[in-house]
Amino acid sequence: MRVQLLRVAALIGLLFLAGFLLPKLGPEAPGAYEGVVAAPTSPRLTGAPTPTTTVPGPPPGFPSMEYAPPEIEVPDGDPIPIDTKYGISYTVPGDWRNDSRAVAGWGGSGGSVTYGAIAIYGYDYCPEHHDGARKAMSGMTGRNGVDVATAAFEASRQAEIIFRDQPDDAVRIDYSGPVEFEIDGAPSVRYSVRASNIAQKFDCDPTEATFDVVATQGYSNATVAVFIVQTDQRIQGALARSVVDQVISTLRRKN
Length: 255
What we know:
The strands form two sheets. Strands 3, 4, 5, 6, 7, 8, 9 and 10 form an eight-stranded antiparallel β-sheet that branches. This protein has a three-stranded antiparallel β-sheet with strand order 1-2-11. A hairpin with a 2-residue loop joins strand 7 and strand 8. 18% of the residues lie in helices and 34% in strands. It is built from four helices and eleven strands, in the order αβββββααβββββαβ. The chain is globular.
């Protein structure tokens, strides 16, 4: 019994000694931010640091707001004005849904596209879609570090992400040329895009769609505001082109 107790005591002592020594064998924990480096693109191949992309911010002192303006409540059926955090407002018909404090978009193998300050027409028209299909959507985002013409062009080419499932699929995308005009005296550029031969997952899915982009001067949060209206076509109750033009015509600087 005494021999067993000695063995147990010796074992406990060894375990205690190991617990004391093992932390000393490794490197000491770094202090705050010490030893923090960019992860390599492929350490087994090159060991080169990962290239980083910095999203330009607005110029110093440019007005900004943390949250989008509150939704404007109007009587049912009345046109719905929507204020955005870019100092631009627009109005949609009364049968749309105001989701101006939400964000929505598209994503696929080519990337993702997201807009805020949104309004939706014909939500959940296709019950097979568990995430809620919509017949049309408007929205806005901001850009810094580019001019209005470049922002409009680049945003219009995001139609490749919105409408294609694969880079070499059968979808046909036709782009208009740039249309220059003014919004409250500020230079603005519009592109109109039409997609056709879109593959259907369900019978209620569209086979054609449109995507209109307007870039103009931003007055807060971003120097350029990019506005879009996307519609599904070849479906029952599809939005007429005249309504798209009407919504775009309401773009204005917020008072």
